[in-house]
Specification:
Function: Pyridoxal 5'-phosphate (PLP)-binding protein, which is involved in PLP homeostasis.
InterPro entries: Ala_racemase_N, PLP-binding_barrel, PyrdxlP_homeostasis
Bound molecules: pyridoxal-5'-phosphate
CATH architecture: Alpha-Beta Barrel
Family: Belongs to the pyridoxal phosphate-binding protein YggS/PROSC family.
Keywords: Pyridoxal phosphate
Oligomer: single chain
Low-confidence stretches: none
Strand order of the largest sheet: 7-6-5-4-3-2-1-8
Cofactor: pyridoxal 5'-phosphate
């Protein structure tokens, strides 16, 4: 499939998933995760209509950003070491991996403008995954009020790669439940409207469960490292 065909296929699947649960497809943003592909391939995705790009490592992010610049929205979806924050934070439109106070403090200190952040939640309890335990999310977000440049726009999760559909759905429902609870506080620093969940393998389930941002790599732009 060409990128154009892959993109259309994903758009169609999102439309169908929305129809099944009575959602408006305009509520779902497609983020192309370009970590395994070249700048040229990322550019090809932009040419077929992608408006959001994501990287999960500092080096990859900086390289793509330098070449492509501000014509798209930039998402950072990987673990970010606090000491590296200053190198990229002013290029990041959305940070998807906020999961600790030390990182929030450093982001707040180094950014020149408000940073839109997703708080990452470990909804499955799997050891290898980053993110806060669900029971700690509310208190953590409440505590972020002291960092005026951090705005919590939503929650993010990753389902384990080998989980079955039933479990994946359960983790996504868990994230939505948390989002609804936090949103209902009407905290000024944490509107928490969005749900960043769903990747190549599970984005249709994620959309059925309320995802507003799906992060798609392999099925959209491929994997040139393979
Ligand atoms: C790599 C990655 C994705 C995309 O994964 P695919 O399975 O290739 O779609 C999404 N989110 C995060 C955080 C990633 O690291």
């Amino acid at each position: 499939m060409t990128i154009e065909e892959s993109y259309q296929d994903i758009v169609n699947k999102i439309d169908a998933a929305c129809q099944r649960v009575d959602r408006n497809p305009a509520e779902v943003e497609i983020i192309a995760v370009t970590k395994y592909v070249s700048v040229a391939t990322a550019q090809a995705a932009i040419n077929v209509g992608v408006k959001h790009l994501a990287e999960n490592r500092l080096e990859g992010f900086s390289k793509k950003y330098e070449e492509i610049g501000n014509e798209v929205n930039w998402h950072f979806v990987g673990t970010l070491q606090s000491r590296k924050v200053k190198e990229i934070i002013n290029q990041v439109d959305y940070l998807h991996s906020l999961d600790r106070t030390s990182l929030a403090k450093e982001v707040n200190k180094r950014t020149e403008q408000t940073v839109r952040c997703f708080v990452q939640v470990n909804t499955s309890g799997e050891d290898s995954k980053h993110g806060l335990s669900p029971e700690n999310v509310s208190e953590f977000i409440d505590s972020l009020e002291k960092f005026p440049k951090i705005q919590v726009v939503g929650l993010m999760t990753m389902a384990p790669f080998d989980a079955g559909e039933e479990d994946i759905r359960k983790y996504f429902k868990r994230l939505k439940g948390l989002r609804d609870k936090i949103k209902s506080n009407n905290w000024e620093h944490a509107p928490c409207e969005y749900l960043s969940m769903g990747m190549s393998n599970d984005f249709e389930i994620a959309v059925e469960e309320g995802a507003t941002h799906v992060r798609i790599g392999t099925s959209l732009v491929g994997n040139e490292a393979e």
